[in-house]
Amino acid sequence: MAHGPTHGIPQAPLPLPGVSKIIAIGSGKGGVGKTTVSVNLAIALARAGQKVGLIDADIYGPNIPLMMGSSAQPRVGPQNQIIPNFTHGVKTISIGYISPGDKPMVMRGPMLHQIIRQFLQQVEWGELDYLLVDLPPGTGDVVISLVQTVPLTGAVVVSTPSDVALQDGRKALEMFSSVNVEVLGMVENMSHFTCPHCHHEIDIFAKGGAERTALQFNVPFLGSVELASSIREGGDRGMPIALAGPESPLAAEFYEIARKLQENAEEAAERGGDVIEIS
Ligand SMILES: Nc1ncnc2c1ncn2[C@@H]1O[C@H](COP(=O)(O)OP(=O)(O)OP(=O)(O)O)[C@@H](O)[C@H]1O
Protein backbone atom coordinates (compact mmCIF):
# COMPACT_ATOMS: atom_id res chain seq x y z
CA MET A 1 0.00 0.00 0.00
CA ALA A 2 1.27 3.45 -0.88
CA HIS A 3 1.94 6.04 1.76
CA GLY A 4 0.38 9.50 1.65
CA PRO A 5 2.51 12.64 1.53
CA THR A 6 2.27 13.42 5.24
CA HIS A 7 5.96 14.34 5.82
CA GLY A 8 5.14 14.42 9.50
CA ILE A 9 2.88 17.47 9.06
CA PRO A 10 -0.73 16.84 10.09
CA GLN A 11 -3.04 17.46 7.14
CA ALA A 12 -6.34 19.24 7.56
CA PRO A 13 -9.41 17.08 7.00
CA LEU A 14 -10.66 17.43 3.45
CA PRO A 15 -14.08 16.45 2.09
CA LEU A 16 -14.11 13.54 -0.34
CA PRO A 17 -15.15 14.82 -3.76
CA GLY A 18 -18.59 13.44 -4.67
CA VAL A 19 -19.30 12.09 -1.17
CA SER A 20 -22.01 14.07 0.51
CA LYS A 21 -22.23 12.61 4.04
CA ILE A 22 -19.82 10.49 6.06
CA ILE A 23 -21.17 8.76 9.16
CA ALA A 24 -19.19 6.71 11.68
CA ILE A 25 -20.96 3.85 13.45
CA GLY A 26 -19.45 2.97 16.82
CA SER A 27 -20.33 1.24 20.03
CA GLY A 28 -17.61 1.31 22.63
CA LYS A 29 -18.30 -2.30 23.55
CA GLY A 30 -17.65 -5.19 21.16
CA GLY A 31 -20.24 -7.70 20.08
CA VAL A 32 -23.29 -5.47 20.54
CA GLY A 33 -24.22 -5.69 16.86
CA LYS A 34 -22.53 -2.63 15.40
CA THR A 35 -21.63 -4.40 12.15
CA THR A 36 -25.10 -5.95 11.93
CA VAL A 37 -26.62 -2.48 12.28
CA SER A 38 -24.12 -1.00 9.78
CA VAL A 39 -24.82 -3.50 6.98
CA ASN A 40 -28.58 -3.38 7.47
CA LEU A 41 -28.63 0.43 7.57
CA ALA A 42 -26.47 0.57 4.44
CA ILE A 43 -28.87 -1.74 2.59
CA ALA A 44 -31.96 0.07 3.89
CA LEU A 45 -30.54 3.44 2.76
CA ALA A 46 -29.64 1.98 -0.64
CA ARG A 47 -33.16 0.54 -1.02
CA ALA A 48 -34.51 3.99 -0.17
CA GLY A 49 -32.77 5.27 -3.28
CA GLN A 50 -29.56 6.59 -1.73
CA LYS A 51 -26.10 5.93 -3.14
CA VAL A 52 -24.29 4.22 -0.31
CA GLY A 53 -20.73 3.17 0.49
CA LEU A 54 -19.58 1.17 3.51
CA ILE A 55 -16.09 1.04 4.99
CA ASP A 56 -15.14 -1.80 7.30
CA ALA A 57 -12.77 0.06 9.60
CA ASP A 58 -12.37 -2.96 11.84
CA ILE A 59 -8.94 -3.83 10.54
CA TYR A 60 -8.21 -6.47 13.18
CA GLY A 61 -11.56 -8.25 12.96
CA PRO A 62 -13.24 -7.48 9.64
CA ASN A 63 -16.76 -9.01 9.51
CA ILE A 64 -18.27 -7.11 6.62
CA PRO A 65 -17.13 -9.58 3.93
CA LEU A 66 -19.04 -12.36 5.69
CA MET A 67 -22.08 -10.24 6.50
CA MET A 68 -22.32 -8.75 3.00
CA GLY A 69 -21.63 -12.13 1.39
CA SER A 70 -18.73 -10.83 -0.64
CA SER A 71 -15.12 -11.93 -0.62
CA ALA A 72 -13.87 -10.86 -4.06
CA GLN A 73 -10.51 -9.12 -4.10
CA PRO A 74 -11.16 -5.52 -5.20
CA ARG A 75 -9.79 -4.52 -8.60
CA VAL A 76 -7.18 -1.80 -8.92
CA GLY A 77 -7.85 0.92 -11.49
CA PRO A 78 -5.34 2.57 -13.88
CA GLN A 79 -4.54 5.38 -11.43
CA ASN A 80 -3.91 2.86 -8.66
CA GLN A 81 -7.34 3.55 -7.20
CA ILE A 82 -9.14 0.68 -5.48
CA ILE A 83 -12.49 -0.27 -7.00
CA PRO A 84 -14.86 -1.15 -4.13
CA ASN A 85 -16.97 -4.30 -4.25
CA PHE A 86 -20.62 -3.73 -5.08
CA THR A 87 -22.90 -5.99 -3.06
CA HIS A 88 -26.61 -5.73 -2.26
CA GLY A 89 -26.59 -2.26 -3.82
CA VAL A 90 -23.78 -0.99 -1.57
CA LYS A 91 -20.15 -0.21 -2.44
CA THR A 92 -17.97 -1.79 0.23
CA ILE A 93 -14.33 -2.01 1.17
CA SER A 94 -12.74 -4.16 3.86
CA ILE A 95 -9.26 -5.32 4.73
CA GLY A 96 -10.89 -8.76 4.64
CA TYR A 97 -11.15 -8.46 0.82
CA ILE A 98 -7.45 -7.79 0.58
CA SER A 99 -6.17 -10.16 3.25
CA PRO A 100 -8.78 -12.91 3.51
CA GLY A 101 -8.63 -15.89 5.82
CA ASP A 102 -8.33 -16.26 9.55
CA LYS A 103 -4.82 -14.86 9.93
CA PRO A 104 -4.93 -11.84 12.23
CA MET A 105 -3.54 -8.57 10.90
CA VAL A 106 -0.57 -7.49 12.94
CA MET A 107 0.33 -3.85 12.49
CA ARG A 108 1.31 -0.72 14.32
CA GLY A 109 -0.79 2.43 14.73
CA PRO A 110 0.71 4.42 11.81
CA MET A 111 -0.06 1.56 9.41
CA LEU A 112 -3.64 1.47 10.68
CA HIS A 113 -3.90 5.19 10.05
CA GLN A 114 -2.61 4.72 6.49
CA ILE A 115 -5.16 2.03 5.77
CA ILE A 116 -8.05 4.17 7.03
CA ARG A 117 -6.77 7.06 4.91
CA GLN A 118 -6.51 4.85 1.87
CA PHE A 119 -10.00 3.45 2.39
CA LEU A 120 -11.27 7.01 2.38
CA GLN A 121 -9.11 8.63 -0.25
CA GLN A 122 -7.83 5.94 -2.56
CA VAL A 123 -11.04 4.01 -3.09
CA GLU A 124 -13.05 5.04 -6.13
CA TRP A 125 -16.28 5.86 -4.28
CA GLY A 126 -17.74 7.97 -7.08
CA GLU A 127 -20.90 9.89 -6.18
CA LEU A 128 -22.26 8.87 -2.77
CA ASP A 129 -25.07 10.22 -0.62
CA TYR A 130 -23.79 8.25 2.38
CA LEU A 131 -20.48 6.74 3.29
CA LEU A 132 -20.92 4.68 6.46
CA VAL A 133 -17.85 3.70 8.46
CA ASP A 134 -18.19 0.64 10.68
CA LEU A 135 -15.74 1.34 13.51
CA PRO A 136 -13.87 -1.29 15.51
CA PRO A 137 -14.98 -1.81 19.11
CA GLY A 138 -13.46 0.49 21.71
CA THR A 139 -12.73 4.13 21.51
CA GLY A 140 -9.73 5.70 19.96
CA ASP A 141 -7.28 5.33 17.14
CA VAL A 142 -9.52 4.79 14.14
CA VAL A 143 -11.81 7.66 15.08
CA ILE A 144 -8.82 9.98 15.38
CA SER A 145 -7.61 8.83 11.93
CA LEU A 146 -11.07 9.44 10.52
CA VAL A 147 -11.54 12.95 11.90
CA GLN A 148 -8.03 13.91 10.85
CA THR A 149 -8.73 12.77 7.29
CA VAL A 150 -12.30 13.81 6.48
CA PRO A 151 -15.02 16.00 7.97
CA LEU A 152 -17.62 13.65 9.46
CA THR A 153 -21.30 14.48 9.18
CA GLY A 154 -21.84 12.65 12.45
CA ALA A 155 -21.90 9.36 14.27
CA VAL A 156 -24.28 6.63 15.35
CA VAL A 157 -23.78 4.80 18.64
CA VAL A 158 -25.07 1.23 18.91
CA SER A 159 -25.62 -0.39 22.30
CA THR A 160 -27.57 -3.20 23.84
CA PRO A 161 -29.69 -2.00 26.76
CA SER A 162 -27.59 -3.85 29.35
CA ASP A 163 -25.77 -1.74 31.93
CA VAL A 164 -22.38 -3.13 30.89
CA ALA A 165 -22.87 -2.23 27.23
CA LEU A 166 -24.30 1.16 28.12
CA GLN A 167 -21.32 1.96 30.29
CA ASP A 168 -19.14 1.58 27.19
CA GLY A 169 -21.78 3.24 25.01
CA ARG A 170 -21.53 6.33 27.18
CA LYS A 171 -17.77 6.33 26.65
CA ALA A 172 -18.37 6.23 22.89
CA LEU A 173 -20.75 9.22 23.22
CA GLU A 174 -18.13 11.12 25.20
CA MET A 175 -15.41 10.20 22.75
CA PHE A 176 -17.37 11.55 19.78
CA SER A 177 -18.09 14.69 21.74
CA SER A 178 -14.39 15.12 22.57
CA VAL A 179 -13.50 15.09 18.85
CA ASN A 180 -16.42 17.40 18.00
CA VAL A 181 -18.41 14.80 16.09
CA GLU A 182 -22.16 15.22 16.44
CA VAL A 183 -24.02 12.06 17.47
CA LEU A 184 -26.91 11.71 15.03
CA GLY A 185 -28.52 9.04 17.14
CA MET A 186 -28.37 5.97 19.31
CA VAL A 187 -29.64 2.54 18.31
CA GLU A 188 -30.68 -0.04 20.86
CA ASN A 189 -29.82 -3.48 19.51
CA MET A 190 -30.99 -6.80 20.98
CA SER A 191 -33.62 -4.70 22.69
CA HIS A 192 -35.90 -7.61 23.56
CA PHE A 193 -36.77 -11.09 22.39
CA THR A 194 -40.18 -12.26 21.18
CA CYS A 195 -40.82 -15.90 22.06
CA PRO A 196 -41.61 -17.70 18.78
CA HIS A 197 -44.00 -20.04 20.62
CA CYS A 198 -46.06 -17.85 22.94
CA HIS A 199 -45.24 -14.50 21.20
CA HIS A 200 -44.54 -12.90 24.55
CA GLU A 201 -41.87 -10.25 24.72
CA ILE A 202 -38.96 -11.34 26.89
CA ASP A 203 -36.84 -8.54 28.28
CA ILE A 204 -33.34 -10.04 28.21
CA PHE A 205 -31.07 -7.00 28.49
CA ALA A 206 -33.46 -4.51 30.17
CA LYS A 207 -35.20 -2.89 27.21
CA GLY A 208 -35.20 0.89 27.05
CA GLY A 209 -31.75 1.45 28.56
CA ALA A 210 -30.27 2.92 25.37
CA GLU A 211 -33.23 5.23 24.89
CA ARG A 212 -32.83 6.51 28.45
CA THR A 213 -29.10 7.02 27.86
CA ALA A 214 -29.83 8.95 24.67
CA LEU A 215 -32.20 11.18 26.61
CA GLN A 216 -29.64 11.68 29.35
CA PHE A 217 -26.96 12.70 26.82
CA ASN A 218 -29.40 14.79 24.85
CA VAL A 219 -28.83 12.85 21.61
CA PRO A 220 -31.60 11.55 19.34
CA PHE A 221 -32.83 7.99 19.73
CA LEU A 222 -33.14 6.27 16.35
CA GLY A 223 -34.92 3.08 17.36
CA SER A 224 -34.66 -0.46 18.66
CA VAL A 225 -33.86 -3.75 16.98
CA GLU A 226 -34.98 -6.93 18.61
CA LEU A 227 -32.90 -10.01 19.27
CA ALA A 228 -33.94 -12.50 16.62
CA SER A 229 -32.29 -15.55 15.18
CA SER A 230 -33.18 -14.49 11.62
CA ILE A 231 -31.11 -11.31 12.09
CA ARG A 232 -28.11 -13.41 13.14
CA GLU A 233 -28.70 -15.96 10.37
CA GLY A 234 -28.96 -13.21 7.74
CA GLY A 235 -25.56 -11.88 8.82
CA ASP A 236 -23.98 -15.31 8.86
CA ARG A 237 -25.30 -16.11 5.36
CA GLY A 238 -24.22 -12.81 3.85
CA MET A 239 -27.88 -11.92 3.29
CA PRO A 240 -28.72 -9.22 5.87
CA ILE A 241 -32.36 -9.12 6.99
CA ALA A 242 -32.86 -5.67 5.40
CA LEU A 243 -32.89 -7.44 2.02
CA ALA A 244 -36.35 -8.73 2.99
CA GLY A 245 -37.61 -5.15 2.49
CA PRO A 246 -39.50 -2.74 4.73
CA GLU A 247 -42.63 -4.95 4.77
CA SER A 248 -40.84 -7.66 6.70
CA PRO A 249 -41.44 -6.90 10.41
CA LEU A 250 -37.83 -7.42 11.54
CA ALA A 251 -36.33 -5.60 8.56
CA ALA A 252 -38.82 -2.76 9.10
CA GLU A 253 -36.98 -1.75 12.28
CA PHE A 254 -33.84 -1.05 10.22
CA TYR A 255 -35.79 0.91 7.59
CA GLU A 256 -37.31 3.09 10.28
CA ILE A 257 -33.89 3.72 11.85
CA ALA A 258 -32.46 4.50 8.39
CA ARG A 259 -35.26 6.99 7.74
CA LYS A 260 -34.61 8.84 11.00
CA LEU A 261 -30.87 8.76 10.43
CA GLN A 262 -31.37 10.25 6.98
CA GLU A 263 -33.44 13.11 8.44
CA ASN A 264 -30.89 13.85 11.15
CA ALA A 265 -27.93 13.55 8.77
CA GLU A 266 -29.49 15.90 6.24
CA GLU A 267 -30.15 18.48 8.94
CA ALA A 268 -26.61 18.10 10.28
CA ALA A 269 -25.15 18.43 6.78
CA GLU A 270 -27.14 21.63 6.22
CA ARG A 271 -26.01 23.06 9.54
CA GLY A 272 -22.46 21.85 9.11
CA GLY A 273 -19.70 22.64 6.74
CA ASP A 274 -17.47 23.82 9.54
CA VAL A 275 -14.45 21.62 9.91
CA ILE A 276 -13.23 21.61 13.48
CA GLU A 277 -9.69 20.42 13.85
CA ILE A 278 -8.66 18.49 16.92
CA SER A 279 -5.34 19.09 18.49
N1 LIG B 1 -30.49 -8.05 16.74
C1 LIG B 1 -29.81 -9.18 16.70
N2 LIG B 1 -30.42 -10.39 16.83
C2 LIG B 1 -29.71 -11.54 16.80
N3 LIG B 1 -28.39 -11.60 16.62
C3 LIG B 1 -27.73 -10.45 16.49
C4 LIG B 1 -28.39 -9.18 16.50
N4 LIG B 1 -27.45 -8.21 16.32
C5 LIG B 1 -26.26 -8.84 16.20
N5 LIG B 1 -26.43 -10.17 16.30
C6 LIG B 1 -25.40 -11.21 16.25
O1 LIG B 1 -24.48 -10.95 17.32
C7 LIG B 1 -23.14 -11.20 16.89
C8 LIG B 1 -22.30 -9.92 17.04
O2 LIG B 1 -22.82 -8.96 16.14
P1 LIG B 1 -21.86 -7.98 15.32
O3 LIG B 1 -20.70 -8.70 14.74
O4 LIG B 1 -22.73 -7.18 14.42
O5 LIG B 1 -21.37 -7.09 16.55
P2 LIG B 1 -20.21 -5.99 16.59
O6 LIG B 1 -20.61 -5.04 17.67
O7 LIG B 1 -19.97 -5.42 15.25
O8 LIG B 1 -19.00 -6.88 17.02
P3 LIG B 1 -17.42 -6.54 16.98
O9 LIG B 1 -17.05 -6.44 18.41
O10 LIG B 1 -16.81 -7.72 16.29
O11 LIG B 1 -17.22 -5.27 16.20
C9 LIG B 1 -23.25 -11.70 15.45
O12 LIG B 1 -23.29 -13.08 15.45
C10 LIG B 1 -24.58 -11.14 14.97
O13 LIG B 1 -25.18 -11.93 13.96
TrEMBL record:
Keyword Iron-sulfur: yes
InterPro entries with a match to the protein in the record: Mrp-like_CS (IPR000808), Mrp/NBP35_ATP-bd (IPR019591), NUBPL-like (IPR044304), P-loop_NTPase (IPR027417), YlxH/NBP35 (IPR033756)
Domain of life: Bacteria
SUPFAM superfamilies per UniProt: P-loop containing nucleoside triphosphate hydrolases
Keywords: ATP-binding, Hydrolase, Iron, Iron-sulfur, Metal-binding, Nucleotide-binding
Binding-site list for ATP: 28-35
GO molecular function, one term: ATP binding
Signal sequence, start to end: none
Entry similarity comment: Belongs to the Mrp/NBP35 ATP-binding proteins family.
Functional summary from the UniProt entry: Binds and transfers iron-sulfur (Fe-S) clusters to target apoproteins. Can hydrolyze ATP.
Protein name (database record): Iron-sulfur cluster carrier protein
Source organism per UniProt: Acidicapsa dinghuensis
